[in-house]
Design a protein that fits this description.
Blueprint lengths: L1 H11 L3 E6 L5 H12 L2 E4 H9 L3 H8 L6 H7 L14 E4 L8 H10 L4 E8 L2 H14 L6 H4 L1 H24 L3 E5 L4 H22 L1
Parallel strand pairs: 1-3, 1-4, 2-3, 4-5
Helix pairs in contact: 1-10, 2-10, 3-4
């Protein structure tokens, strides 16, 4: 594993890896671990937006109803992060940055202009039924804190609907650009992570061969 991580680190440079998936697919779990292993900075659009929503009633209303933040809010709040001096010399692991169709293009451009080009996009695949099952377990264990968008099943279902309608077209754009690494995420956390590393290693080898 250590050699594989070293290979991925060398391939990635100061680039970015963006991670997508349904709610409860494990985006932050995988992303934080990957960032730690690669010496990268972790940016979660959900975490950033929820923090901003504490002082933005309009944004809080959107997110607490299960809707994606508007593209205007996304552009205003998220995109400036990429130019932060403390990120300049580090690779970035992104959790669902640019979730609404059309947002992928400014994300790609911003990453390029700040020397964090997107090198891969990971899709953690779980079914809608598995996502709901994980949500129910998390509610029982109360391990998601006070997140309002997890507590109400109707809101949760809206989040799933938003992903299918608005985010899947984003992922398709990345697929067409040969950036997508699709991972089945139904196994235990260590197995899923090992599969992510293997997928990134294959992508790195492919890019090296075609260079």
């Amino acid at each position: 594993m250590e050699q594989n991580i070293s290979t991925i680190r060398n391939w990635l440079g100061t680039g970015s890896i963006n991670i997508f998936g349904l709610p409860f697919a494990g985006k932050d779990t995988v992303g934080i671990r990957l960032a730690d292993d690669l010496g990268a900075k972790f940016l979660s659009s959900g975490l950033i937006l929820r923090h901003s929503a504490e002082n933005d009633q309009e944004l809080a209303k959107e997110m607490n109803s299960g809707l994606l933040a508007s593209t205007d809010k996304f552009s205003e709040i998220i995109l400036p992060y990429f130019a932060m001096p403390e990120l300049r010399n580090f690779p970035l692991i992104l959790s669902s940055v640019g979730r609404w169709e059309g947002e992928e293009y400014p994300v790609i451009e911003t990453c390029e202009s700040t020397n964090h080009p997107i090198k891969a996009v990971i899709l953690l695949n779980i079914s809608e039924s598995e996502a709901r099952k994980r949500r129910d377990v998390a509610e029982t264990l109360m391990d998601r804190g006070a997140r309002q968008d997890d507590k109400d099943l109707i809101v949760f279902d809206k989040r799933v609907e938003e992903f299918i309608q608005k985010t899947m077209p984003v992922i398709e754009t990345y697929r067409k650009r040969n950036l997508l690494v699709s991972i089945t995420a139904t196994a235990d956390r260590d197995t899923v992570y090992s599969n992510v590393v293997a997928g990134l290693l294959e992508k790195a080898a492919e890019d090296t061969t075609s260079a």
